[in-house]
Specification:
globular; about 20% strand; Glutaredoxin; alpha+beta
């Protein structure tokens, strides 16, 4: 079984938690990464730990292709894709939907190569972070992993309508690459 090291870590060189509302992500900053398997669009297991520490990694947990708030967040992230690409960042979009639905989301949003869709069918990865609602949908969350596999940005709000600000994500990516402390 391929093990994924995914995201619980904070940067000794800079940690940031998006401050607004009821942010469940505050406890993620400063912790070691956890491991679980995830699946790419071709059904292959993916090891995110191979990306951590090499370049900025953004992980976005979203509810599903039917969610208008998810679409809005992805459009906002797509708008900063050229900047993310310049920073050599990669964005992993994680849902517990089947891979064919992930492809439908990619096509609907016209997502570029900076975005990689992953399925977390049993929500094991999501359970390490925001978790899921009683209905089974993943709770929205966004995490930026920087140098030394450390989380440098984390946002997970109980209100599914409120998402991480794309400019704050971009700032965290830029500051992580430069080794700066990111503050809001």
């Amino acid at each position: 079984m391929v093990i994924q090291t995914v995201l619980l870590a904070a940067a000794s060189f800079g940690a940031f938690t998006q401050e607004m509302g009821d942010n469940k992500a505050a406890g993620w900053v400063g912790k070691s990464a956890k491991s679980v398997p995830v699946v790419d669009m071709a059904g292959n297991k993916v090891d995110l730990s191979k990306e951590f520490g090499k370049r900025p990694v953004v992980v976005v947990f979203y509810r599903g292709i039917w969610c208008p708030f998810c679409h809005k967040q992805l459009r906002e992230l797509e708008a900063i894709e050229p900047d993310l690409k310049t920073e050599n960042a990669i964005v992993y979009l994680v849902s517990n939907e089947a891979t064919d639905k992930l492809e439908a989301m990619r096509q609907a949003e016209k997502l570029g190569p900076t975005f990689v869709s992953l399925s977390d069918p049993e929500a094991k990865l999501a359970a390490l972070y925001a978790g899921k609602y009683d209905q089974g949908y993943l709770k929205p969350a966004t995490i930026v992993v920087g140098k030394k596999s450390k989380i440098v940005f984390a946002s997970a709000l109980e209100d599914y309508k409120i998402r991480a600000d794309s400019q704050a994500v971009l700032k965290a990516v830029r500051d992580t690459k430069l080794g700066k402390r990111t503050k809001m």
